[in-house]
Amino acid sequence: MASASKLFADARSALEGVVQDGITIMSGGFGLCGIPENLILALRESGARNLTVISNNAGVDGQGLGLLLESRQIAKMISSYVGENREFERQYLAGELKLEFNPQGTLAERIRAGGAGIYGFYTKTGAGTLVAEGKEQRVVDGQTFILETGLVADVALVKAWKGDTEGNLVYRKTARNFNPMMATAGRITVAEVEELVEPGALDPDCIHTPGIYVQRIVKGEKYIKAIEQRTVRKRTAA
């Protein structure tokens, strides 16, 4: 592989040299939708520990980031929704896992701000609640706003539907979720894609993440795409 190439043979090699103990990692996805399955497995196999992970949630027991909780590689989560993971709950209540809890929209905006080079922003969300404790507050036109700071990560792991070898990415429907913001907020962004194409194959008007934000890309394999809670309509009589 040429030194200038962004393309790596597999998820394990895509993380070599960028993952180490004690770093901060962003991991895209919402629940189990749009998560970088192969990169998470490679991260577990790397053995890196004492990680701070920024993600909307921590997967579920036995899947997604839940695998890293089981292997005790995560020391702190910066999250919004953590209600689908019993091991997460156990570790947090036992004092084994630190948690920085964020309203969901605030978390998304903190990541977007970090990627845009914005130090922080003021929001009414959380004012007058535990969310505001220890944060700078301002009253504007009679309303209280709290200062939230932008988030950046040493490494961002994102998952896209299609990508080219230059790192241009296209996401599919709700699997888009947190991935585009995180791709901009990682000092090094590693993307895994379901379909890898050559430059020029993607319609420029349909690219969600320009390749300038992506340093490494890999074609993922053997996706499970698990569903957290399957809900189906009851059959009706013919």
Q: How helix-rich are the residues, as a percent range?
A: 10-25%
Helices, by number, come to 6
CATH class bucket: Alpha Beta
Shape verdict: globular
Helical/strand content category: alpha/beta
Domain count: 1
The total count of strands amounts to: 11
The averaged pLDDT comes out at 95
Q: Which ranges are low-confidence, i.e. pLDDT below 50, for 5 or more consecutive residues?
A: none
Q: Indicate the radius of gyration in whole angstroms.
A: 19 Å
Terminal Cα span: 59 Å
Oligomer: single chain
CATH superfamily: Glutaconate Coenzyme A-transferase
Helix and strand run: HEHEHEHEHEEEEEHEE
| Beta fraction | 25-35%
Biggest pleated-sheet summary: 8 strands, mixed
CATH second-level architecture: 3-Layer(aba) Sandwich
CATH fold call: Glutaconate Coenzyme A-transferase
Give the SSE map.
Elements: H1 11-15, E1 24-27, H2 37-46, E2 51-54, H3 66-70, E3 74-79, H4 86-93, E4 98-101, H5 104-116, E5 120-123, E6 137-140, E7 143-149, E8 153-164, E9 169-170, H6 179-185, E10 186-197, E11 216-219
Parallel strand pairs: 1-2, 1-8, 2-3, 3-4, 8-10, 10-11
Antiparallel strand pairs: 5-7, 6-7, 8-9
Describe this structure as you would to a colleague.
This protein is of the alpha/beta class and 238 residues long. It has a single domain, classed as Glutaconate Coenzyme A-transferase (3-Layer(aba) Sandwich), CATH 3.40.1080.10. 20% of the residues lie in helices and 26% in strands. The longest helix has 13 residues.
Gist?
By secondary structure, the protein is α/β, with parallel strands linked by helices.
